[in-house]
Every structure is written in structure tokens, then in C-alpha cells.
Specification:
Length: about 300
């Protein structure tokens, strides 16, 4: 039996988090999260309301995660927080006011480093009418901004950070979570859609100012529905650029996607075969844009091709 997180009041969420942990279903993964940080309670209540909580005590837990102060002293003097995964601490402690950002970064790390049943590509993934588009991109490419705008216009969100391509079937499996936006992208999306629900903004992180946008409830509810990849689009936000979609040959597309894979070398021949098959079945493009409305129009046309 499972319930949605939104059915719990904040006080009950805080109690579960501080005690034995809150079990949250995130796509194919089950997260057990513990924390005594009030900001984490607010983050979950505001942005994870549509996610399912697991009550079964025998369910397999993929990630045991804790985010809390590294010591009693650091709760009061220059307060800090520490992310731990199965007792392992992959990151240095950060200021306490970066707890929500650290949680999302930590979950990205969990997926990227513990999901070798998939070829894991650093990319956003969206879908509409059965057409799934992979958007690989480096920081600053406009990947997440474009993804957020498309999702706000009715596209299904599979992920804004990672494409999970099953190595046996070649299917894309969703891992829909809040969309991470940085710096000027936050205001761009807030202006684009004033109804978009954001969590708190975290300033002065290693990536600047960071805020997270709630994923659509329909994307969370359909998180168990995989889809075959149909297109690969490499986006680039370029100020002053005309909107331009240019076909990319399969050899160059293969190399560009491989450069954006987290575990391509770990998977070896399996990774090569999975990526080769995916690129063979996908149309690939380079995409330059400045204006979101023009970008969305281009993607709607691409979806109908």
C-alpha cells in the first residue's frame, strides 16, 4: 500500500524523517531519507507532494540517504550539513542553508553511480505523443531552461538531469524529480510561467543561485511508463542567435552522446552496443536558440515530423 506525500502534514513528515526515515518512490528506485533539517521538510512538502510513500517494511531500498549536521557543534556554530549514502559521505559538508540543493545533487550522484543496469546520459528527457527526445547538454547550454519551458507547455518530464537507457530493452525509464534551475534561468522561467511552483532559492552555491521547480503531477503519476527514444537534440542557448535546428550525422551524434555519458566506460562493450543501437534509431540535431517561444514552436514541429 502507498500514499502520496502530500497527504501527510509537515509535522508528520518531520517525525518520519527524524526517526526511521521516509520511504519515497522515485521512478524505479526507492529512497529511504532521514533528516532533522526543517528546510528538507519544506522542500519535500512543496515539491514532492505527488510522489508515493512506501509503507511496506519489506520493500527493497535502493538508496539509504541521510542529510544532517555532521556534528552537534555544526548545528549551532557556522551550521553545516552533510550528505551520506549508505553511511558513505561522497561530498564535503556545506553551509546548512544549502541543504535542499545538496539533497538534489546527492540524489543525482546516487543515480549516476549506482544504476549500471542503464546507460546513464547527462541530459534532460521529455516526451509527447509517444515521441521521446533526449537533450544532452553541458552546464550553461540551456538544457534545463528549455526542458522546464517544454514541460510547462504540456510535455512529459522523464528527467531534467539524466536519461536512463535500459541496456537490455533500449527503453528510456523516467526518474521525474524537481527541475534544477540556476541564476538567470530561475527568473526566465518564473516570467515565462508565473504559475510554476518553485521551492526556495539557495544563493552562493558552487553553481551560483539554485532553485527547483515542481514536476507536473502527470509526469510523476506516469513515472512507471517507459518509452523508446526517438530523437536526440543538443541544445545551445546563444544570446542573439536565430532559432536553428540542424541535422547531425550519426557518427558525430554518437561521439557527442558518449561524451555526456556517466558510465559509458564502465559498461564497456555493452555501453557501446546500447548507444550504437540508440543512435541508429534516433534522428539527431544541433539546436541553437534564444527565445523560448520560438524553441517550443520548433519542438512542436519536430514532434509532428
Amino acid at each position: 500500500m502507498s500514499i502520496q506525500l502530500r497527504s501527510l502534514p509537515r509535522e508528520e513528515i518531520a517525525t518520519y524523517l527524524a526517526a526511521n526515515g521516509l520511504k519515497i518512490q522515485i521512478g524505479l528506485f526507492t529512497l529511504s531519507l532521514r533528516s532533522s533539517i526543517p528546510a528538507i521538510v519544506e522542500h519535500l512538502h512543496n515539491l514532492y507532494g505527488d510522489f508515493k510513500l512506501i509503507n511496506d517494511p519489506d520493500v527493497f531500498i535502493d538508496w539509504y540517504v541521510k542529510i544532517d549536521s555532521p556534528s552537534v557543534l555544526r548545528r549551532f556554530i557556522r551550521p553545516q550539513i552533510q550528505f551520506s549514502f549508505d553511511g558513505y559521505q561522497p561530498f564535503e559538508a556545506l553551509p546548512k542553508d544549502q541543504a535542499c540543493a545538496m539533497l538534489e545533487w546527492g540524489l543525482n550522484w546516487c543515480i549516476a553511480n549506482n544504476s549500471n543496469q542503464f546507460l546513464v546520459i547527462h541530459s534532460a528527457v521529455i516526451e509527447k505523443n509517444g515521441i521521446a527526445i533526449i537533450l544532452p547538454g553541458t552546464p550553461g547550454s540551456g538544457k534545463s531552461t528549455l526542458c522546464a519551458a517544454l514541460v510547462l507547455r504540456g510535455w512529459r518530464l522523464l528527467s531534467d538531469e539524466m536519461a536512463l537507457v535500459n541496456v537490455e530493452e533500449g527503453l528510456l525509464y523516467p526518474v521525474s524529480r524537481p527541475i534544477s534551475l540556476k541564476n538567470q534561468s530561475i527568473d526566465i522561467i518564473k516570467d515565462f510561467s508565473p504559475d510554476a511552483n518553485f521551492g526556495m532559492s539557495t544563493k552562493d552555491t558552487a553553481k551560483g543561485t539554485v532553485a527547483h521547480m515542481q514536476p507536473p503531477d502527470s509526469s510523476v503519476m506516469n513515472v512507471n511508463i517507459p518509452v523508446f527514444p526517438a530523437k536526440v537534440v543538443f541544445p545551445s542557448y546563444i544570446k542573439g542567435s536565430a532559432t536553428k535546428l540542424v541535422p547531425l550525422d550519426k557518427g558525430k551524434a554518437f561521439m557527442k552522446v558518449a561524451e555526456n555519458c556517466f558510465n559509458y566506460n564502465v559498461l564497456g562493450r555493452v555501453g557501446f552496443n546500447v548507444l550504437t543501437k540508440m543512435i541508429d534509431h534516433c534522428d539527431s540535431y544541433c539546436f541553437e536558440y534564444q527565445y523560448l517561444e520560438e524553441a517550443i514552436h520548433t519542438f512542436e514541429q519536430l514532434n509532428n515530423d
